[in-house]
Amino acid sequence: MKSTFEVSDKLFELYHRVHRLINESMTEEGVSLARSKFLFFLSKLGPCRSTDIAGALNFAPRTVTEAIDGLERDKLVVRKPDPEDRRAKIVSITEVGRVVLEAAEHPRKQLIEEIFSALDDEQLDQMHEIVSRLVVRTDEIRRRKQEGAGNGASR
């Protein structure tokens, strides 16, 4: 029987290998996995402030600003003044950004299908159940830690 650490290490190894392979394939199509996260977010939710992006993607504001600078330079997004706050800018995906995102999504989906084709339907269902349980447990632990930090901060 494998230890929890052996299984955990194998899971992290899988994640990193899949991430690297997908990033390489998407980059060949014109947008890295990291940049595609920004484009995907803007594509789904529409124009928004960079602070909204930072909060949603859990990135530092400076990281988001630098990423948007690069995306804007490549004409994948555009910044316009926020009509409600003259200090802020609204970021939108451009048509070029949509085309690049769509082109990069194809190899990502194709690779995921190819990787997971190693499992039959029953194994996929089992893996989904196992990973779902781990997600729930992770959320429980995070919530417990946040509640504990909140209690300690009030002392």
TrEMBL record:
Any one GO molecular function term: DNA binding
SMART domains the record matches: HTH_MARR
Annotated ranges, domain HTH marR-type: 8-136
Keywords, ordered alphabetically: DNA-binding
Pfam families xrefs: MarR (PF01047)
InterPro entries noted in UniProt: HTH_MarR-typ (IPR000835), MarR/SlyA-like (IPR039422), WH-like_DNA-bd_sf (IPR036388), WH_DNA-bd_sf (IPR036390)
Keyword presence, DNA-binding: yes
Name of the molecule in the record: DNA-binding MarR family transcriptional regulator
Species for this entry: Rhizobium giardinii
